[in-house]
């Protein structure tokens, strides 16, 4: 389980095509300082399993399903990525509960700078819109954010200077894809209410 508080802005240093999968090598000296084979690290919000670590970098295998359902398939050597280790038991929940299981992808639609922050508009798949509410939580590329405006096909978030400087949302431009994970609590509530009414959400 993650919290959506990005620990480090890492970099893709190599991508190897394995046919039905890809092996990524990513530089992240902070998240690899205590990482070992089999550990989990969230990469742009996608929970990946560490294969090996060396010299401040780690490798992870990404199957075709994940490449197709997330924005990881668009990563290339030199791409910057958000990195986070799982929350330790008893640690502070600085963001919200994040599983690292991407529900869909969106696209940066526009960026509107203000004096001390920036409003970013992101397209939203219609099947996810029911889980997104104003002032609720959403994970964008692994970043826990508060929704400012929620519509059927988009939402907006307000980014403070720290988020802009320490995550990929400071450099992504209109047209760039982002991974989205909605609040898992909303999905559980929907399922429970569906069970009560006999109309289980699919």
UniProtKB/TrEMBL annotation:
Molecular functions (GO terms): riboflavin synthase activity
Domain of life assignment: Bacteria
Catalysis: reaction(s): 2 6,7-dimethyl-8-(1-D-ribityl)lumazine + H(+) = 5-amino-6-(D-ribitylamino)uracil + riboflavin
Lumazine-binding domain sequence ranges: 1-96, 97-193
Pathway(s) served: Cofactor biosynthesis; riboflavin biosynthesis; riboflavin from 2-hydroxy-3-oxobutyl phosphate and 5-amino-6-(D-ribitylamino)uracil: step 2/2
Lumazine-binding repeat segments: 1-96, 97-193
Enzyme class: transferase
UniProt keyword terms in alphabetical order: Repeat, Riboflavin biosynthesis, Transferase
Function: Catalyzes the dismutation of two molecules of 6,7-dimethyl-8-ribityllumazine, resulting in the formation of riboflavin and 5-amino-6-(D-ribitylamino)uracil.
PANTHER family, per the entry: RIBOFLAVIN SYNTHASE, RIBOFLAVIN SYNTHASE ALPHA CHAIN
Identification of the protein by name: Riboflavin synthase
The organism of origin for this protein: Streptantibioticus rubrisoli
């Amino acid at each position: 389980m993650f919290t959506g508080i990005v620990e480090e802005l890492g970099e893709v240093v190599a991508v190897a095509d394995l046919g039905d999968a890809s092996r990524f090598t990513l530089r992240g000296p902070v998240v690899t300082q205590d990482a070992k084979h089999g550990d989990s690290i969230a990469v742009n919000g996608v929970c990946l399993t560490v294969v090996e670590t060396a010299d401040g970098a780690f490798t992870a295998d990404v199957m075709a399903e994940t490449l197709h359902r997330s924005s990881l398939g668009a990563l290339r050597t030199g791409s910057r990525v958000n990195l986070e280790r799982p929350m330790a038991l008893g640690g502070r929940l600085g963001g919200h509960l994040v599983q690292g299981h991407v529900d869909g992808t969106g696209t940066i639609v526009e960026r509107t700078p203000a004096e001390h922050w920036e409003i970013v508009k992101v397209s939203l798949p219609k099947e996810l819109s029911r889980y997104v509410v104003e002032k609720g939580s959403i994970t964008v590329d692994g970043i826990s954010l508060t929704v400012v405006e929620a519509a059927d096909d988009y939402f907006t978030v307000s980014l403070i200077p720290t988020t802009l400087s320490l995550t990929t949302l400071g450099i992504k431009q209109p047209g760039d894809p982002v991974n989205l994970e909605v609040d898992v609590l909303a999905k559980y509530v929907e399922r429970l209410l569906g069970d009560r009414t006999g109309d289980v959400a699919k």
